[in-house]
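Sorry to interrupt, but I need a hand with the structure work. It will help me judge whether the discrete encoding reads sensibly. Write everything out right here, beneath this request:
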Amino acid sequence: MAAWRAWYRHDARSVGLIMSRKMLAQLAVVLVFALAALMYFWLKPGGAAAERIACEDIVRGCRHDDLTIQAMTTPKVMQAFEMRVTLPEAESVQASFDMQDMQMGINRYRLQQQPDGSWRAMVTLPVCVSESSDWVMTLDIKRPSQPLRTQYTLEFSAQP
């Protein structure tokens, strides 16, 4: 009987040790994901408040000072469409897309500069379970004359 108790205590300790190692591993995974999310939002370009651009029809194009934004076809969910940005002296242009009141995950595009000086990307909007069609595009623009990126936001609708 005493031998069984000694074996049981030893076995219970090793099971507890295994369980605590499992819990530590799970905690480490959760901490890594939390740290990655924190770094994403902390290192996300921008920082200053974004300028809002009024835009009635993104297909006809929207202007703000020397910036022009245009979708070459009507934006539709889950169908690629070309987004074109024209801005003299831009060093880089990136666009991200979210719903009005809902983040849609990492949905970021780096627009490529074209020979004519415009910036273009093929964009695919993800499907939303709420079937909403109101989108917010955030443009991050780096200009050689400015040390920080400039951010603009633009609201538009997409067909489901």
About this structure: The helical segments are 2-43. Residues 41-46 have pLDDT under 50 and may be disordered. Strands lie at 51-53, 62-64, 67-71, 81-86, 92-99, 108-113, 119-123, 134-142, 150-157.
